[in-house]
Specification:
4 copies of one chain form a homotetramer.
Chain A: E1 6-11, H1 16-25, E2 31-37, H2 46-49, H3 60-63, E3 67-68, E4 79-82, H4 86-97, E5 101-104, H5 129-137, E6 142-145, H6 149-165, E7 167-175, H7 188-191, H8 202-213, E8 216-217, E9 222-223, E10 228-232, E11 242-250, H9 256-264, H10 269-272, E12 283-285, H11 294-297, E13 308-315, E14 321-328, H12 332-348
Parallel strand pairs in A: 1-2, 1-4, 2-3, 4-5, 5-6, 7-10, 12-13
Antiparallel strand pairs in A: 7-11, 8-9, 11-14, 13-14
Helix pairs in contact in A: 1-12, 6-8
């Protein structure tokens, strides 16, 4: 690119998702991190403030950058990535969005009628809501949200099946990674030799967000898809990668081998546009009996952590039902990676100007 | 009891389930272990042969007993507990059953039409098949089987709900403990920071066994229950205790609070008969948001490891569906404990004479 | 006992050690818990306040008792067990000790010259310091401290060897359990597939406390033992039980088999006095190549969690050195259990009157 | 390079170390894998035979290559890497060495007087033994061995300290990763919530190999270094990376800050020669209190897995002792990586012609 890079701020930069932003935006062809915002760590250098818990070595440039408090009115950037905690996001995401194109991982505004909840491969047309948003709120900037980390992989896997067979019900049990709880997150005494069958608010979020993302956009709103979604969540002792076991019932009869083709052939706008963070294949279908597995497969694909890995596709109870296991990296596609992909698509569609 | 104890043989005594038999029969009021049978370890003392992997200290009496090869024709015992590997059980379970009352944990004969597959609280009437069995096979002894460790907890939880609401479909995802794979079982390199979404043959077994146990006994056979059962299995890094997340659809409308009462109030013949290994409550219902958990709850109840612990009972997609999480100790209620309870019930009903 | 039980308060009762006190004092023959003190949880019932993380089911009587704030001046009890965090213990332990016999697990006063740091089997004569303490401080009550959980097992194993061979140097590497860090303690993201070679302040504490406990009591002070103690600590992913690998050099030549006898034959005052919480054998020596192991052996012995389990006793570099591995339960003998044993010994010696 | 690559055979190619060879030799500038040898998997394609347990995706070229039986007399290669199990290595390593330059990870011949046991940074001069070897055995090829995975990191860290301060004693406790036991290796039931203080034969190997590698080469033999080495080994629940906690006593007084410089400044022949697999810094010294940690640091440095990471350098008992923690990747530097580095050095020194 001849022109200079867009300057990006990261809000909540010392958290687990913040750390993924730092990693994924280093050497990004279009965006450059120029502002780090954190509340508790404001005033320190990033290298002093962050409890880095990844084996990846953080870039020296960022480690030596100062972390500052949020100043939505005077920030000098071209776009904003927010991974603030829910409460802080309620306060700040809209203030930033009033002035800057803002992509947020927080759950705070995901279900607002005029806020797109986006997976670029799944519902790029929902970006059209931004016109409603601008009209209604009078913002110079905009707010787009990235979904819950468990909903993300689920919706990517359901989308092509829904298009092909029309899903009526999805019953899902999850086995979610520890990094999904942030840091410090789950105490080790709770999870060694254990499974916790509960994550506060998660089941409701996954169901509602799934229906919103698969919903149809009319002139100025999204009608949630009518499918039934029942989610049962569990925390297990894995570091990264949410595994989900799904049973679906469909309107049209479903053939297992054909369904695998449908999953394999799925492509979206990010693949057409060849966006930098778009994986070649949004869905990787594995044929081995015992895959996907979190430790082996969470980084599979051409852009590690961005593909949803599906396996064990098999018959359900009859010709109108299907079972499968899916794996999605929760801090990459389930957070920072999806948000960056949103920003890349917005960039190419002229929404960042 | 004034009379002397019945002499019991344990087949496959050095395995994980064999170790549970040793533990649970020590100080049993009615049965006494007098014969230890193992193939690879024959000729050694038990203490030399066994790789004891429990924190419980094995009884000195047993540690000093010799392990011998199987001699079904000349064994001098009153009853037999078999926890042989599948292949060996095919060879030996029927040879023992020809002469002795035999209770087997092996899957080999579970689905035979004239072999009861039994959970004493659930289908004690299936014991009536033994008449058919004797007639057909001409045995002096008998063969009763104990179900798959995953089916066991599931069927205990489904039974009272089925009676109350008539279940049409059950969709179940399991998170199974390492001890279910025996010893050495799952390599540690496979399971640390991981989940394996596959256990060979398990999904089919759980579905078929569930339908047999909940089936109706006619004069000389069992008609499997017509409900649909779809099972998706996963191995997780827990030592003991299979956790199962279930979604059911029912014929009659179901009320969540009432369903909890139905589960809580469930009692069976073992409780009526006050059998030594019968837990006071076959089902324990927990109200906390985040329970049951394998490490905390697998030993809950008056006879540790014998109760099924149910939690997170909540609404499914509509008035005819329900979700719940259940936990069952796989080597106790899921194997040795259930087999011992079967033998105790047979004893009281005169089947061991 | 004909007389009624002594009434005990537990300070810091909702923490991990507090939970062990509750468990171990239930049904105690001499002591009865009558007062629960906690700061953050004051005003709640114990059952509401505690995050119980053990599979043991807490006694209903205690679950329904209120937790109250500390009121050292008006408490109505006969003795006090303190497991307060260090800072709170600085404030409160001495206030309670001014009025009541107080046994504290906190590190706050362990190194004070007039405060006994006690393992009843090792240095019961250090209780004599209480005369100095009373004289110097004018207290009606008294303060005795229980050592660091890592020092406890180490000192128990070193004591008989020191008596027999005179230890000059001990080089120790520890592999410590998660429960030693309290709750919530170590984040799971830090410890899965990992070891942390650091625990703040631990190495210094273990060295200093070991030398104090093995030191000689003169008329009114303890001279620390002159042996060199070098400790390197590590946190590993075990729930309970600190494993320690020790290399020692001795003044007198040491024979391996004789050293095992010396360890096996070790008995102390609690065994002589047959105190209720005294294990029959303070040290259990295992001969198997691969023991002790935390999960298998932390509860070994006649009073689970109170014995130090020693194994792999073998030659060091020459005739004056020895190596061994030891295991000690950190929240039982390393905290609540040792404190209760101290109180039992004080009771029998008339210090609680 | 203008000339074509040297053709390499890998013996034992489906094992864990074999898998590392495949990964590290893909795209190697000088060597090309042309022959895969395995016993049980002979006749299959590599992709069918291997139980791949790494998240790295194996190269398609290798996955489609056949695995063949060993034929030392007719193999058509330029060099051989052997990672056979001990027994097979006894049979085959010398047969291959009779014809080809062979680098072996097996322990079988490591302690033979005429066989170099090599870490290229530590004792490159020991390669001179090959003249003795050729003379004595009449081989066309040669045999060089790569040390035990625990000895490797230890010796790299001790070497510069030994040169600077002359080490008299090293007391080492290890916390070793699961991959060191191969596959299937340690059963998961043994290691969850546990530590195993034993690995058969390991302590003796580490001590003897350390002394050989640090020993002096005379005209035709190595005199083992006289330092005392006492090793206590433990298996912990980490995937990769052996952590070792070391206490050393030195002849000359040692200053902590200076010792860190000595470690940091260490460079060897591979760095001078800029060998492809040589890390820029053989030793990385970390200053953080709680590092190195296996999961975070095992892949640190310019060639992941090839550097020894040292931390917690601190005073021992007096001016002549020092403590430190070190981490070394056991299947990379501790096996395949070191063997490849040996071959690279031999290549540059003309030993492969």
């Amino acid at each position: 690119m001849g022109k200079s890079k867009l300057r990006a701020a990261i809000l909540g930069v010392t958290g687990m998702v913040g750390q993924q932003y730092v990693r994924m935006l280093e050497n990004h062809p279009w965006f450059e991190v120029t502002t780090l915002v954190g509340s508790r760590s404001a005033g320190k250098l990033y290298g002093e403030a962050v409890e880095w818990i990844d084996s990846y070595e953080p870039p020296a440039r960022i480690m030596n950058m100062p972390v500052k408090v949020a100043e939505p009115e005077s920030e000098d950037v071209d776009l904003v990535f927010s991974s603030l905690p829910t409460e802080a996001a309620y306060q700040l995401d809209t203030k930033y969005a009033a002035r800057f194109p803002t992509v947020s991982d927080a759950s705070s505004y995901r279900m607002e009628p005029d806020v797109p909840l986006l997976i670029p491969e799944v519902n790029p047309d929902h970006l059209g809501l931004l016109e409603v948003q601008r009209r209604k709120r009078g913002w110079k900037g905009s707010l787009v949200t990235s979904p819950n980390c468990t909903a993300t992989g689920l919706v990517i896997a359901l989308k092509p099946l829904h298009d092909a067979y029309r899903i009526r019900k999805a019953v899902v049990s999850t086995m979610q990674a520890l990094s999904g709880a942030g840091y410090p997150g789950v105490p080790s005494l709770r999870i060694i030799d254990n499974v916790i069958p509960y994550i506060k608010g998660e089941e409701e979020k996954v169901a509602a967000e799934t229906k919103k993302m698969l919903g149809a956009k009319s002139s100025d709103a999204i009608s949630p898809d009518p499918m039934g979604v029942s989610v049962m969540v569990h925390r297990v002792a894995t570091i990264d990668g949410h595994l989900e076991s799904a049973y679906i019932e469909t309107e049209r009869p479903v053939d297992v081998e054909e369904a695998k083709e449908v999953l394999r052939d799925f492509r979206g706008k990010p693949q057409e546009m060849k966006l930098p963070t778009a994986p070649e294949r949004p869905i990787i279908v594995m044929e081995q009996d015992d895959r996907p597995q979190p430790r082996l497969d969470r980084m599979a694909g051409s852009v590690p952590g961005m593909s949803t890995v599906v396996g064990r596709v098999r018959r359900g109870l009859d010709d109108h039902s299907l079972r499968l296991t899916l794996l999605s990296h929760n801090t990459i596609r389930g957070a920072a990676g999806n948000a960056i992909l949103i920003a890349e698509m917005m960039h190419e569609l002229g929404y960042l100007e």
